[in-house]
Every structure is written in C-alpha cells, then in structure tokens.
Amino acid sequence: MTTVPRVEVHPDSATLATSVAGELLTRLADAQAAGGVPQIALTGGTIAEDIHRELARLSPASEVDWSQVVVWWGDERFVAPDSPDRNAGQARAAFLDAVGADPARVHEMPSTADADDVDAGAAAYAETLRAHGSGDFDVVMLGIGPDGHIASLFPGFPQLDVTDQIAVGVTGSPKPPPERISLTFPALNRARSVWFLVSGDGKAGAVAQALGGADLHDIPAAGVTGHDETIWFLDRAAASRL
Known about the structure:
The protein is α/β, with parallel strands linked by helices.
C-alpha cells in the first residue's frame, strides 16, 4: 500500500526537533496504553541528535516506559564499538541511557568487534530482527542526505535492488566511514509509520525530488513509505524548494 505523504514544515531545526520528540512520545505512550510493546528504528545525523536530546528532556514528564520500547537502527557505521561515528553510541549518550531503556531491548547493529565484515554483520542483524522483531516497526525514522540517500542506501548502489534480504553490507560509501550496514527497502517498508527528518537548505533539492516521485535509484528516499502514514518533518530551509 502506498500512503500519500504528509508534510509538516517547522520554522527551524530546533522547533522541528521538539515537535518530533513530542510526537514520538505521544505515539509510544498511546501504544503502551493499548497494551503494546512498540518497536522503533532510529537514525543518525545532526537532526537526529537534536531529537534525541529533546527525548531525554521531555521523557521524564511523559507516560512512556522506555524499558518497554524495542529499539532498532536503520543503518550503522561498521567501526569499532567505542567509535564516536556509531549511531548507537550517539543515541545511548544522548537519551537511551538516561531514559532507562532496557539493554536487552536495544538492538545495536554489529561493530567490528562483533563481525568479521559488513556482510557477516548484516546477516547477524537480520537474524536478530527475525528473532526479536514484531514483523513491523511502529515508527521508522530516517534522515536524508543531499544526494537523496536514506539509511546507507546510496544512489546507484547495488543494495537498492536487494529484495531478498533484511540487511546488507555496504562498502565504498560516498559518505565516510566507507563501511556500513543498512536495512534494505523491504525491511524499511515494513513500518506502520515512516518519518523523514530533514533540516537545512542543502537537502531541499533531494526533498523536492523525493516528494515529486523521483526514481528510487536516483533518490533512494523515494523508495520508503509507511503502511499507515508517511510524514516528512521539515524545517523551512529543507522545504524551500517545494
């Protein structure tokens, strides 16, 4: 099913971060009130870090029990476990540790200490998702690059055409570090709600192309939609070419 995307434009990146954090906490609280254990996929990047800090600030006043939230990642840099480049490390430092997330429910992608190479790491993460995933994510959060990439799915790369795997290894990434693990389109599209989080005029062109129906091989962001909804959370700069 293809959902018509909703576009929310916020005055600036700070307002965007606060709005997204508040919306996520509301969704998680509602899911838990209904007896669910929500599963979310996080992203990395500057705007994600801002959102994570807002989650840490706003969570104490919310009704969310973070020990009952299952956390995944859409992609990860294949580096040492203590590398500052790791999305998981940034999320832990910014909010996961502070809000009391259950380590058993926080599923990091493998580091160089966990797998011999990116392909082995991708296969291991796929097995973890099969074992502990619910089948669908409640919310998948994605940043977008100026080239239109999402997760670590880059324009023109062969991973865009992988349809029979949950996760794939990526080498030669145009954005450092060069080795990464990423969920595939089929995995990312198993989401009730997909949220694109975008700030800055440098990404305005990619946003416009994605929303304009570009081919996913040119603008990978065009290849992900939620079953129930797809929301583009933009600041004014990112929305400037719509």
